[in-house]
């Protein structure tokens, strides 16, 4: 798991349900603890399960997520329950993110299922995922039924493939009926090139969420990372999304990270499709 | 704790509150993690406590149970809080169960208190249990007050005794005001015979839940286990219950387990007093 | 964490919401487990977080508290989230407590914020605390915003200082807008003297909660601890509070503890400002 805390600034954050104006700046905290249990059979098959404890600022209590269970052997993993989904697991889909809170306007704009750290909206949600990993490549498929006790809902199905070849990483994914919304189909393809002998690189992502059921447009994001000094990395992106409701179709962000060895300081400034600025700064540690 | 997942089939599962027909087949998952804490005094007295994290399919979140605390010395254990009850702890009372989900129509048909893995229905429930173990024998008594803050409810009281002598295990239990229902008294007696030098055996259980407060009739179940091949055990039972509301008074089940060493595959088919069939198949692992 | 269980007696405990008379005696249980995660950077800076699992009798489930996160180096600790507060952390403020449940009528009578083991009343509560420790001394300041998303509430601010010099411990604290109530300001000062070469001692605490916003009066408590035999300590206090609503301004308590090595037996009898008696007896163990 990990912990992080810092300041989160959002220009024109808006109003709460009572009509009070929300503060533009607030303290952001997250503590995530994954509770894993596993065992191995004499034949070398691994069985296990995971529950996540997560607290975010604004919660009244720490959430104890729904669980998933898995069986794994020879690179093939089958998981059942509150599973990671294929679309959410695409290797590069979040790679343009910057800052402490790991956000990017180059991410997908609409919804799709993922491991749910909070309580399910629908108790009877059930997922199944299959992943196969072999040297340099990973393919995965997932299926989420919003309510497995009855028929009639649209079930989400997604697939992804990741491949690394020398200095190039490729990633693609597709999701059907994203988040259980009928005909909300989405496509993702991305590539990242690491400059030989460095940690510097450049990437390009394309996400299509332009279905009538979703209307989130197409997003293209060009991004890069550059180690300006030992332990210090600058990252930046410029994103374009053609959704009708945008104030502007261009968004961008820049972030910096300073490695403390076991923890890092990070900060970012971004400007979104609503022409507002958001920024964060703080510290994150992994354990 | 343990994890398990598989398929659960129930003929004519019925309808949900919204009137939708429920699927006969569903994916069944459970992840159970017991969180134990304990310490020992210099005199060799053990103190401890337990909380259980459990997720079942159909839950929106993992439940974090109410806790019990205990003190233990020289074979005598006193526990307080969300305790295991004597009737529920009788050594053979669940012994006719088959399959992944460990079910049997030969089990008690009505309610009684046990350790509650979910949230209490009544916040102010309080239990006390006393158990004494000595070579081959165990006796236990428990007391559950549905609401300890006020008088007037019926309190559940139960006792049990287990005894093993050579190849024979004997078990008996009695509960008064089961699950806090006045005059819902229940009786259990069971025996199991293991064939010398094998894991094969045969058992007979009798449960009387025929009080006017309960009206669940009397249940007799004859059951057995047979190792048909190394690692592979077949189990079966035939049960008779004379409750008025039954479609049939006879139920039966057959199950199989294949040991993977640290995990096992299990499946079962049963036919109940409602003349419907239920079945399960899947994998369970302990950690 | 720790566990404890025993009997809690309260003369004239009163009535529940349904109008039923509450039992004077009840079984008291608590199981507290702190779940800590931490890491250290190469520079020797510690980062960590804490979530608390706690079950008290009367709860339907074990509570999983909101979390706090911290960074610590060279005696300076900054924490964010569900933090310990300065006023609640004053070294001697709870020192007159007796018995299993650790209670005293010499404690503060009104409210102020502390680490919240239960769910927040207000989801958007946010706290920050800073503590500095150096040989024999500790100073701390904390700030709690009842709702950090909007302006307009009163924020609690508190400070405390502790100092130990030879056989004398001194402690002082101040809180402004205690528990987010405007102008509910409180003052605390206390001292404890340990007799050289013994565990016996005597202390005096003064707490002023006499603001118009609070009206809990001023409390003075004189208390002492005396080891009457090896492993056995008697403690007693006499407290005076001048709140208008008191039946009597004088309260007192006496308690005993017997150390089992890793656990202890404890009991107490107290008489409060309402002229009623409360008592407890039981066992507590730490792990």
Overview features:
globular; 16-stranded antiparallel β-barrel; homotrimer; mainly beta; Porin; 287 residues; 1 helix; 55% strand
Structure notes:
- The structure is a homotrimer of 287-residue chains.
- The first copy, chain A, is built from one helix and 17 strands.
- By secondary structure, chain A is mainly beta.
- Chain A has one domain (2-286): Porin (Beta Barrel), CATH 2.40.160.
- In chain A, strands 1-2-3-5-6-7-8-9-10-11-12-13-14-15-16-17 form a 16-stranded antiparallel barrel.
- Chain A is globular.
- The model of chain A has no long low-confidence stretch (mean pLDDT 96).
- The A-B interface holds A 35, 37-43, 45, 47-49, 51, 63-69, 71, 80-81, 118-124, 126, 128, 148-152 and B 1, 3-5, 16, 20-23, 26-27, 29, 31, 33, 53, 55, 57-64, 260-263, 283, 285-287.
Task: Give a quick precis of the structure.
3 copies of one chain form a homotrimer. Chain A is mainly beta and 287 residues long. Chain A has 1 helix and 17 strands.
Q: Which CATH top level class of chain A fits?
A: Mainly Beta
Separation of the first and last Cα atoms of chain A: 6 Å
Low-confidence stretches of chain A: none
How would you sum up the major sheet of chain A? 16 strands, antiparallel, barrel
How many domains of chain A? The number is 1
CATH superfamily of chain A: Porin
The H-and-E topology of chain A, N to C, reads as EEEEEEHEEEEEEEEEEE
Q: Approximately how much beta-strand content do the residues of chain A carry?
A: over 45%
Tally of strands of chain A: 17
Query: Helix amount of chain A, in percent?
Result: under 10%
Radius of gyration of chain A: 20 Å
Number of helices of chain A: 1
**Structural class category of chain A:** mainly beta
Sheet with most strands: strand arrangement of chain A: 1-2-3-5-6-7-8-9-10-11-12-13-14-15-16-17
Global shape of chain A:
globular
Describe the oligomeric state of these chains in a short phrase.
homotrimer
Q: Using the coordinates shown, work out and report the CATH topology of chain A.
A: Porin
Biggest interface, residues from each chain = A-B, 37 and 32 residues
